[in-house]
Amino acid sequence: MGASVSTTSTTGTTTYAPSEGTPAPSSAPSAGATTAPLSADAAPGASTPAPGGPLTRGARTSTSARGGGTHISALAIVLAALGAALALACAGWALARRRALEPHWWLSLRHSVAEAEYRASSTWAEFTDWARLGH
């Protein structure tokens, strides 16, 4: 007897069914399947796989055996570089302040900022007086 053919139109696949005389393959082992003998130190329900079996033939190595398995992202590298640059800049600034290295314009800038603060506080005080009196 021949094999029957079934075709589905949605996926475009063809399925061949075996003839009636041939048993269909199944994923479950049959009742007459043999198991490997147990080793002396194995647990009483476990079986040892046969050499060349599915567990030894396609076994993959773990990540630690391949190269450590550590991965540092690009963002972590950029953040570490920025942190190192910031720490270096802070150390340079602290050293310059410790040795009293100041540019010549620093004193005049400090005086200008203090004068601006004084004038702004006076202007604010005049404004609060004006608002309090109700003008």
Task: Describe this structure as you would to a colleague.
The chain is mostly helical. It has a domain at 106-135. The protein has helices spanning 54-57, 63-67, 74-98, 105-133, and strands spanning 4-7, 14-17. A two-stranded antiparallel sheet has the order 1-2. A hairpin with a 6-residue loop joins strand 1 (4-7) and strand 2 (14-17).
Structural classification: mainly alpha
Main sheet specs = 2 strands, antiparallel
What fraction of the residues are assigned to beta strands by DSSP?
5-15%
Say how many strands there are: 2
The dominant shape is elongated
Q: How far apart are the termini?
A: 112 Å
Number of helices: 4
H/E topology pattern: EEHHHH
Which terms would index this structure?
mainly alpha; two-stranded antiparallel ribbon; 135 residues; single chain; 4 helices
Concise description?
This protein is mostly helical and 135 residues long. The protein has helices spanning 54-57, 63-67, 74-98, 105-133; strands spanning 4-7, 14-17.
